[in-house]
Amino acid sequence: MADSRQDGLRALVGADVEVPLVTGEMRRYVNLDYAASAPALRTVEEGIAAALPWYASVHRGAGFKSQVSTELYERAREAVRTFVGGRPDDAVIITRNTTDAINLLASALPEGTTVLVFAAEHHANLLPWRHGTRRGRVRHLPVPDGPEDLVAALDGALREERAGGTAPDGTPRAGTGPMLVSTTGASNVTGEVWPLRAISEIAHAHGARFMVDAAQLAPHLPVDMAADAIDYAALSGHKLYAPYGAGALVGRRDWLEDAEPFLWGGGAVRFVTLDEVLWAPLPDRQEAGSPNVVGAVALGIACETLAAIGMDAIAREEQAFHAHAVARLAAIPGVHVHLTWDLAMPHIGLVTFAVEGREHGLVAAILSAEHGIGVRHGCFCAHPLMLHLLHLDERAAAGIRDELRGGGHPVMPGAVRMSFGLGTAERDIDAAADALSRLVAEGPRWTYCVSPLTGEWEPQPDPRPWPALPLGGGIERRRTAGEAS
Asked: Which of 43, 45, 60, 437 has the fewest beta carbons under 10 Å from its own?
């Protein structure tokens, strides 16, 4: 049983919000969508409220408020470094999010770098390398069937790359150029935790560096870059209970220091003439423009709060939630949990599933409209992995592409995902399982159709009132498919 201090540290903004159902009832919102964006911690909300009166420009302001804001910004940087176990000489670059951080690293790759990445990755760790390796190349490895398969495939690929020669498709291999292995820390689709230390050992044995997409790992498990010899880690504040628009890239300085800035502008320079630019050293070199001080402070507070709660304790709790959720879903006829690895492998608090005979978007809409439960659905920004899990071959993928290019609206593949966090209780998982059991047994209690405005399943009609919020005097509900003109 958590003590009162632990309860205070775990408190989340909006945890007691009630939402309307299509039936006219009000019900406590059951948030099972932490993997997409986590709510703000109360400590973050309160810390930002305390810091805002002192907000001012940072680094070059002589005013007292500027000095305070600069101190807060730099303390946030150190809080992030400590949270992920960064080395004392690691750079900590404040970014917008994980996507921004990985794009930054991709832009800083040395000439001729070969990047090795698995097809199981989130698009944030899949797409940037295609652009960033315009001075090198990217090699995609297939979705691994398990940790042993992953390790063997990576070891074999690195041996081939280091040996040089010609790849099966006829392209020349790098041979002696720099190499980077970039993997997820934990899958945002299946929740499986990847063997980071083993990956790091193999990468370094072949002279490669190792980058971890820690967006899903950092909120759920301890991260220790120094102990696991991780060269770079990228993370997002909105996954870490600090949804104020900041993330971070932490890692080795040299590639980031030797490269031109990712963004060109004020703050990244030491001196500028019309003919020449002298770039600033890190971190300023890679933080052009006025930084998101509020977002950085929020991220730093969240890191300190999670560390005070204890990441090991959070991990144990979420592993229990995962086991309970899998057991409840397995007992519902027609519900199938998607996995690439065995359930005995470590998982974060995340379960992706399908309901036989029900389109994933419809299932998510029913859970929301009839039960007040928030989940995620679709392909979770990991299309190659979802195609693999759904056993859709290249012919099926080509059909979807062709229909989209032709202006059509194909039924997109996907699944439903429930994910857990600090505010999750076992009763939330039970509420979702009970709702799914009712859906399977009785079908929906309301009518639904796909809106031509949103492309999403929506209740028809949708009588739920929207809350009065800022911007234009309040929020007006989007029209549903039946109301569209």
From this structure: 60
